[in-house]
Amino acid sequence: MRLAPVKWIESERFEVCFFTDSRTLKEMIVATGIGAFPRSVSLLPLPHNNFGSPHSISNPRNRIRFPERKSSNFNFIFSLFIPTNPPFFSIKAAGASSSSDYAEEPATNVKFPTLLNLPGCSSSLSLIGTGFREKVFAIIGVKVYAAGLYINPKIIDKLDAWKGRTSAQIQDDSSLFDLIYQAPLEKSLQIVLVRDVDGKTFWDALNDAISPRIKSPNAIDETALSDFRDIFQNRPLKKGTFIFLTWLDSSKILIHLSNEGIPSTSEATIESENVTRSLFDVFFGRDPVSPSLKASISNGLASLLI
């Protein structure tokens, strides 16, 4: 049976689409082309004998009522919720933020401060995008963590050549992300776990992404990977744990971990140009582990480079 949306409803916060086909959720995503959009998606199977939804869906800002329509052709309706309002990011000067200055990652509801002060960084860093990491088990996607990228605001001054570019153009331009990486100014990726994860499992997944990107690891690379592994080995990572991966330059990163707020000291310093570059490529290269994060960063940069 051909998969087709039978109803689209839009609101200020999200769009809703109902489907009459009970194909797997994975097939539905592919068939509707949602994978091409830089927006987070949730799929919810609703057992119904009516073409409609529960009488209303509400959130703090919206209440939408749906018409009911009888049908005997199917027993399930699949609803597709797509947030339509991505966070807006702006570069703030140090001291300009307040406790209310946060950006919420919409798929996980994790809030990120728009300004970050980390030990080892020469200045405050500004948030330019958020996203989430999802692992697929069978056909079900399970969110593991939310992530936000912070940069030294001076990096924006080096990106004049990309002014006026669209988000899509920025996302596809690896040279822009290479320039951000090469800039001798701090960049920090904040990871916030949204479920309990064993430290070894977290590292194994990260290493599986880093190692193939290092074609011929040398002794320095092996030492750096070993030091990286030791941070997470035999360490339970609870929901809500903060992990900061901070690039000081193109060959050095600081690792910070905290169970309660911004850490006061770093856990370790990793020094290897191959490892630091590969780690950056894991998140911001052509095949990122979190497409939603790179898409959000591209949106943020497009709004800044006007």
TrEMBL record:
One of its GO terms (biological process) is fatty acid metabolic process. It comes from Lactuca virosa. This is Chalcone-flavonone isomerase family protein. Pfam families: Chalcone. GO terms for molecular function: fatty acid binding; intramolecular lyase activity. GO terms for cellular component: chloroplast stroma. It comes from the Eukaryota. Residues 109-303 form the Chalcone isomerase domain. InterPro entries: Chalcone_isomerase, Chalcone_isomerase_3-sand, Chalcone_isomerase_bundle_sf, Chalcone_isomerase_sf. Coiled coil: none annotated. Signal peptide: none annotated. Belongs to the chalcone isomerase family.
